[in-house]
Amino acid sequence: MEKPELLAPGGSLEKLKTAVMYGADAVYVGGEAFSLRTAAENFSTDELKEGLDFAHTRGKKVYLTANILPHNKDLEAFSEYIDEISPLGFDGILVSDPGMLDIVRRKAPELPIHISTQANNINYGSALFWKGAGASRVVLARELSLEEIAQIHEKTDGLELEAFVHGAMCISYSGRCLLSNYMTGRDSNQGSCAHPCRWNYTLMEQTRPGEFFDIFENERGSFIFNSKDLCMIAHIPELVKSGITSFKIEGRVKTEFYVATVVGAYRREIDKYFENPEGYSFDGSELRELLKVSHRPYSTGFCLGKPDSSGQVYTSSSYIRHYDLIGIVTDYDEETGIMTVSQRNRFFTGEELEIISPGRPFFTQIAKEMKNADGETINVAPHAAMTVTMKADRPVVKGSMLRRGRLPDDWEVELKNVL
Ligand code: SF4
Fold first, then answer.
1. Which domains, and CATH codes, for the chain?
2. Are strands 347-348 and 380-381 parallel, antiparallel or unpaired?
């Protein structure tokens, strides 16, 4: 049984580095053009080079996302773009359009082609079609069950299958949606979705303008299109057995804290399963970690069968957020145990914090012996982006993160939503 690749979003150079440090085997990034995330801080060519170098020296892969649905005007520019990026050494490029695939095949025949989820790959016939057209990997639509994925795996003769295991869902087929285009002029298929599916809707009868009726009986509103987030942390064995070769985490616009936490949780759970597949059981500890990042209510999406109305959130469009990032460790002195922290949120001496680090479990400690950049003792780190030093109870590394928060006492009720 081969260990699957853990594939993480690299929305910026720092997020790429965070994903690699916290255990991703591969990262997907967008260049300045042709990527379906205009809100992500897409990379310049120099940053792409630095990101590739960082990942490759650590034995990790980087895939370039170029999955817009192109119009005529985009094709020539894409052709020039391929000339520019092909010497950089990407490990694959994601496209969703046959015209773009054709350009990659002609101009960069050595570059592995991955077909984006945007191409709505939901059956083995289309997977085989893309294989025949030169693709080495197909990213499956989120709307498939694991049973269907296993059938596609059986019938596609070694084609790599990538599937989302964690992150936001769309109410339309994998983002092929005109809601944003229609309501705001921002095209989700060009990377500019305004997420109107998360908005609060009412019903108005044509001859009674201004009289709004609730569509769903709830005083907080009617969020009729608002999907829950996918979370498959409790199903690593089933994901592996279905033949998925790459476990994909969604979220190029998410924060470094999100990337570190989610990648770390899946890294540990996958490794735990492969250490002892027969004796493995899911104990919920990594779900506990996943509840510490900002998220919508979790569900298993389509993986275990078609979701019913419980796959949507009708009562609110806000994220659930129990924890805040307090700071990121930029330096650590092993002799003195003093860490330098780039602060992100105000915190005080005596507060209980949690510290996460790549490759090890988090620990709890009280903030103490805090000093500002001038070496003066302080009891509060007041502004964001201030640099402070403080004593760490256990060794940390550059890239460790300090967080503060508390899960509800009954957090274990969340287990039923992901089992
Ligand atoms: S509006 Fe919602 S469903 Fe449509 S593409 Fe954007 S996120 Fe997806």
1. 5-171+228-307 (3.20.20.70), 323-405 (2.40.30.10)
2. antiparallel
